[in-house]
Specification:
With 365 residues, this protein is an alpha+beta fold. The chain folds into two domains: 211 residues, Hypothetical protein, domain 2 (Endonuclease III, domain 1, Orthogonal Bundle); 123 residues, Nucleoside Triphosphate Pyrophosphohydrolase. The chain contains 16 helices and seven strands. The strands form two sheets. The protein has a four-stranded mixed β-sheet with strand order 4-1-6-5, covered by helices on one side. Strands 3-2-7 form a three-stranded antiparallel β-sheet. The longest helix is centred in the first third of the chain and has 16 residues. The radius of gyration is 24 Å and the shape is globular. The protein binds adenine (ADE).
Length: 365
Amino acid sequence: MPPKPKISPSLICWFRKCRRDLPWRENRTLYRVWVSEVMLQQTRVDTVIPYFLRFLDRFPDVSALAKADLQDVLKLWEGLGYYARARNLHRAARKITDEFSGIIPPDPERFRSLPGVGPYISAAVMSIACGYPLPVVDGNVLRAVCRIFALKDDISRPSAKKKVAALLTKQIPETQPGDFNEALMELGATVCTPKSPRCTRCPLAKLCMAKQAGIVSELPVKTPKAPVPEFRVVVAVIRNENGQILIQKRPENGLLGGLWEFPGGKVEKGEAPAAALERECREELGVKVKTGREIATIRHAYTHFKILLTAFHCRIEEGTVQSRLPLKWAEMEEIDTLPFPKANHKIFPYLRGHAVSGREQPPGT
Ligand code: ADE
């Protein structure tokens, strides 16, 4: 096997000259770096910037975050997705207040003990904010490293990630390990892109083993993912005599945990949407409802599945609503202040009468 080129000098030199001005790169504190890296996990830089600024404005330090109500934290996170990140950040801030005298632990071992801090967050934050030489391997890094070192491992396998981490452990410098990590992430995001990489602008073009072998476009090797399933979902917009709408809070743990939503659920195979909604309302709310006019049908994609969601006006015919989950009759003004999933937000304009267009087509049409 040919010896592996040493990449850190050219990489760090390029980063110092070309790095983007990003808000978390100013006034680097452990807290700012941590919040930014949590937000940046699975999310693009451009999307994160406004969320980061609003979050820091509202919760400028760990103590402000620890004192906050989880609902307010989720409201600021609304639309960013992967809400467990926000819940864990909030729990971690409380743990820091209770167990670490309000000081974010500046060493990997104790930092790793915080909720939501796995190998990626720990390596990113500890290298950038505290100078520990721990390599970061995100999707952008994985792709760039496979090209730089002409690795033909399938990046959808965990073994590829391990191999890249081991390789980077030998490459990461003791001085400026944070710059090294950020430079690689930045290179993957802006130069060594999935399609049409900008090799003419790459600081590592002379060292890149895939370029030398003429196989840049063949790397990284990745088995295509199975197509994600689409579920049919129905939700009820039930109003009381004051025109308030019934909403319920999802359990704190799990998908979209702690967010509010309209009652409803999945349509089962062979079930008509109205029948599914009436069943869900009976099971979840203990009431008999009559499904009325359709309000809107929207599509929404999550990471592992998609939904086709229809909202219907519904009327309670028998019973009083009760649920294991918190329920609330709310005006639209209050709904605007509570955290809701994006799919529910797509319904709001129809409730306000502001929506322009018609309906999405159900699958297979
Ligand atoms: N992606 C995740 N963290 C990043 C960082 N610090 N700089 C650039 N891209 C990133």
